[in-house]
Structures
1.
Amino acid sequence: MTRKPCVSGQFYEADMNQLNEQIKESFLSKRGPGTLPANKREKDILGVICPHAGYAFSGACAAWSYSSIAEAGFPDVFIIIGPSHYGTENPAATLQDFETPFGVVKTDAEFVNALAKKGNIIIDEDAHASEHSIEVQLPFLQFANKDRMKDIKIAPITVSGKTDCKALGLDIKETLIDSGKKAVVIASSDFTHYGRNYGYIPFSSDIQKRMYELDEGAIKHIKNLDSGGFLNYCFETGATICGQIAIAVLLSAVKAKKAKLLQYYTSGDITNDYRNAVGYAAIELE
């Protein structure tokens, strides 16, 4: 079975040609990398952190993560970990393929089934039916891999507050070893959600500066490859980083030597309205 898009025409353009232009603009915009993906395939990366908001807001930031992917060796599977926005308690994978305006992205059912047998995720198609955090990554993933689009395989996983990040990270490591496959892990996450719309107003002055500082503190732990410190920081500050569990699983799943911040800004920087604003970060792990 194939999962149909649920946020095309909302988060991104539903028409293939318009979507192609929208993503091009994300790469070439002043907040984007400034160039289109090079497909050099010379780098060796383990994962990225990438936002999942509407492309009009976070597309330029996402382009940095996918520029990194385009320059890296093509993996056997892209493991995409996103937060569940609809209250699904259990970490859940799907065996369905995903349809986008660019075509169908194949799910690596063999890998997903092997991962599920480890015991820390379940197969739950309903958990993915309306979830946008993984879907929004796919057109960028296809665009960045135009030279290998038909070869793309993904392992889509949603996580929640009840996820055992270390256990799931270990499961991913073991499944990759067992299968002999090479992976790039994509943690789908926006950063701090500020304002009345998000129920989070820890400060009311110098909002732009203080949002930057709040997210900078979280990013510092990511740069230190410290998943525990990162989660403690989110708990202690209340930082509303929606994909914090996905990020922690990424840090547990890969044996990175360094994490590099590629881009950061907020939606307020685009709208010039910080009453309700969201932070976006693109981070590469090598």
2.
Amino acid sequence: MRPLPVALALTAIAAGAVASASGGKGKVVRIAAEPSREVFVPAGPFWMGIAEDDIDAVVTQCEQFFEPNEHVPIIQGGRPTPFCGGYREELSNMSPRKVTLGAYAIDRNEVSVTDYRKCITAGMCSLDPLIAGDERYIRDEWPLVNVSWFEAQEYCRWRGGRLPTEAEWERAARGAEASDALDFGDRARAAELVWPWCEEMLRDAKDTTKRCVERTEDFNHGQPRNETMRSVDRSQNILLLLGDPDNVDGYELIAPPGMYPWGQGPFGTRDQAGNVSEWTADARGVTDLTIGYTNLPGCSEHEEEVLCINPVREGNDRDTRVVRGGSWRQPAFLSRSNLRDPYGVIYDPRRRFAHVGFRCARSL
């Protein structure tokens, strides 16, 4: 069922308020305030990363949903690697770790085309994202796509912020503060927080029967590429694996930001699962010394545990960047809160993609 537009929802609320105020004859209308642009994430720790058992499940889905491994190799660490094999290697170097972050604010919704136009009008942002990519995906009410990593950073700086680090992005999506009812010391339990809506479901740490599951109608995602088209097209272009649109969630293509409020994260963010994938500040490690979280700045080992404080891999202007969150043209499982996008090798910060947008953050 197509999600109810926010404007209609507010109209319904207002109508109900009038009726309840004076039997339908009064003129007093009580309308809920518009949600703030940003949400606040307090300083504190959380579990970041993916458990070993989950890696096997994710790679199995990868092998089911994408082109057979032998057809599209990728370059991982300077050597050709099967697509899903390369993804396994990256995830295997993203083991769970305790990460402590300072307080920060992060956008509730993905940056829209209308938002970005304001920066252009102010003379602080480039017009290129609106004219250099596929125009079919540029609508005022949609999240901005066709935007390079550099242009996204430029917009966030104009707003007085920056792109979120990969750790900030994941904490906003997963929650799991040490002070929560969820036992921070229970790594296995924390590993359940793989969707933005999981924290509330798992808050009662005494109930170990609850499991947080993928809710495919609660976020905007795609499906694997049509099998017939995959069999016909045998080029080596990795973009051909992205997938096809899927309308079971209410939108076949991109949805306006915030249309799935029931899928919001523990701090109030929306669309961190699906809609458009999102640039983060971090460079993506690609060598044996930097793959995944290997030698991630800000992290160190302590008594067989990895502890991190405000981790981020800065990189240089040519390093590919970490993209998170899944999108409207990728299978639902890739929208999990603790997964990187498997197409990481293509995310050159100068390139544009019809499925990649962004949101901003700022330190507090």
3.
Amino acid sequence: MSDDLVLRAQAGDGDAFSALTAPRLARLYAAARLILRDDDLAADAVQDALLQVWRDLRGLRQADRFDAWLRRVLIRSCYRAAGRHRSRRVAEIKVRWAEDAAVPDAEREVALRDQLERGFARLSPQQRAVLVLRHYLGLSTIECAEALGIPPGTVQSRLDRARDAMRAAIEADDRAPALVGEVAR
């Protein structure tokens, strides 16, 4: 079914292109949002990617490779959007509790999610892209390599570096309140 839609869209059928891309929009937007950390930039990146796909669709030689190609175009669109928009708006709220304090599970879960969010926000778009492809979209290393246009070994090293950077950012956040308290004394 999808291959037929690709072939019809390649022939210029706009309805086929809409039918082909509509079910993928939410996932494309979610991936772009995770990479770019901004709703408007993500929407622009998805729109730019879809326009490029529509323009270049006739050049796609294997209809069954449409999804991989679409992801690759989206990643490049996200990189361009990030390059155009260098400023970062980050609001940080520190959530700390004593180890022995009784913190409800829901609050602890929100605090942990916030901590991960802050760590993720400190990563570069390239680091976020490889993490989103691997862990959010659930792609294999080879599929990530195809989407990013790099060798599988490079994907693995970027994943390792992105995880290390995220770990370091989270650990830095954990140390920050102690340092602030020491300076104030």
4.
Amino acid sequence: MKIAFTVYGEPVAQPRPRRCRNKYTGNTIMVSNPKNHPITLWKSRLIEAITANRPSAPIEGPIFLTLAFYRSIPASWSKKKQGEAILGMVWPTSKPDLDNLEKAVKDCCNSIIWKDDAQVVQVSKVKKYNRVPRVEIEIERAPQ
């Protein structure tokens, strides 16, 4: 079984959770995502696409995951450098971090595509520039 789909939009990395003490109890530490962070919109797009492509039941067993993140080419770059980025001669070495981009996708797939992201045993991922920002996701049950 292989599931493949694309989510359009600028990929956003999973931010570090914010921790604070509960102002009422003082002892409880609460963990949440930063307010008004772009991850909220990105995760809603991811979940919408994942839900539309989900199997009838979450996949069990080991899973292979392939991710291709395409970031926007900065408009401030020269036409020459933009062309080089399209041809794959310039790579996006700035933030967001590739591991954190992956984490956002894996978190959204939990309980929808698979039971837990611990089932992912192999990941192939790349971060490139393109005129159309997106992430291409391919999920396949590993052969047993």
